[in-house]
Amino acid sequence: MRTTVSKHPIVFSLVTVVVFLIALWLPAILLAYFGPDFFIENGDYVYQGTVECFTSLIGIGFVALMGYGWIWNENGKGLGKGFIIAGYFIVVSLYSLIIYIAQIVMMDDVELNPAWQIAVFVVTVLLIGLAEETFFRGIVANLFLDRYGNDPAGVWCATICSGLVFGLMHLSNLMSSDTVGVLVQVAAACAMGMALTAIYYRCRNIWVLILVHAFVDFCGAFYSGFIAGGSLSSTISSYEPYQIISALPYIAVTIILLRPKKMREVIVLHKLSGVEDTSVGVVMPQENLKSSGKSKRSCAIAIVIAVVILVGLYGASVYASDYSNSVSYEYSGEWDGEAYFGTDAMTFTTLHSADYTFTISNLPSTNSASMTVIVTDSSGGTVYSETFEGRISVVRNVALTEGETYTVSLNYDYSNVGELAEGERDYITTITVEYLE
Q1: Is 0.85 surpassed by the pTM of this model?
Q2: C-alpha distances in Å from residue 390, one per residue of 271, 333, 370, 413, 436
Q3: Which of 219, 263, 315, 353 has its CA 20 to 30 A from that of 203?
């Protein structure tokens, strides 16, 4: 079966994507309509984790059907060296995790999810890693490498194509999240998919990818998994067009991982994949590996397609930002000693008459400071106003009218704050206004 499907990687990659989406959506629909209310009423991760459990099981079965069941026993470089190869993902994710934890520790008015829901969040990200890596590295990455991975240009072609398939699959999130956020996520996921594929080609150990993917998701969604009121959709919807720049480090990592001096071992490990007796090994020529003209053409086409897709996603996200269901604002600075100061944070026009979700976070360096959030309409009338003391992270629903233009203002009160040392005057405020259909 492996030989048959590898002759048509594009066709069977599309089949894999379809099976993945069916395996994701069908359990989700059945659970939503026929499952107990418990799965719907206890946050995104109880529901999502249950769905991912079914998706993972279907993925394991589909891997066997496609002839790639050997991936579960493939050791390659081993877990330890595999984690070193994936070091960029681990270090960057760990840094973001430390920042999140520090922010939560500094907050006074913050409500954590119950311990059992946090445990469900952890299991959910593990299942997401298992499901996505099973389908997209276990099958898709191997499909393209089986077809093109005989020389360096072919390996690059396989890496790019595999990453694009993985990234474009995330367009399915348009069903639940804001358009701009999803387009940004897709662009970043394309580049991230290439980097993950490069890691897999280098280490040939699917368990490394599953665990690293789960850790990245755990750190990226930590806030929504630990703080009451957080959600998967709100995390994605908060992305802004400029954040597409986050794709660049992934591309750099991919280039480093697949540098010329490492290509020989990538090809050797590939030729050993699925082979039960690897004691004999594979003999490779000692001279420099040369790419065939056909591989070079395939790689060039893949690069052009990738550039067009990434540029197109950026352009579409910028265009869609004017018609988005979500707007975000971040305001930070250093207190200059004034007792009272403020700013007009953002102005937006609503697309619907509905309750809009305001996610508000304020992190002053002292709990003696307060902040008032005021929302006014085009006539100057106040539709929402609330004062928050110290460090907070809250979610509020505010009824807004379709076609109306609203202004969000922030007024800070530092009148009760004493002397603050240099380096202790920083503050940061973030607000996301979101409408989910």
Answers
A1: no
A2: 60, 16, 6, 10, 29
A3: 219
